Amino acid sequence: MEEKTNYSKRSQKDYTLSFKLQVVSEVENGTLSLSQAKVKYGIQGDSTVRKWLQKYGNFDWEHKSPFHMPKTPEQKILELEAKLKLLEKQNAFLSAQN
Fold it and tell me: What is the Cα–Cα distance from 45 to 23, expressed in whole angstroms?
């Protein structure tokens, strides 16, 4: 008996280097998000564009974490308050010199 399956065989696409660089450029300059690039260009894999960014992009992947948790409003407030205090100190110092 012949068995039928309801899925289609995955076909892997080969992308040219110039195509990859074009997609990376559009994502890095903010023209497209990762998901928008995937849809616009019919890219199959969920991590394909991310891998291209790691390989061909300008981000320093070894020293920074590209996927960080967004800060809570409380964390943002504390960070901004600390920056404000530093700027106030710098302003007072510069005002005292004049």
Answer: 14
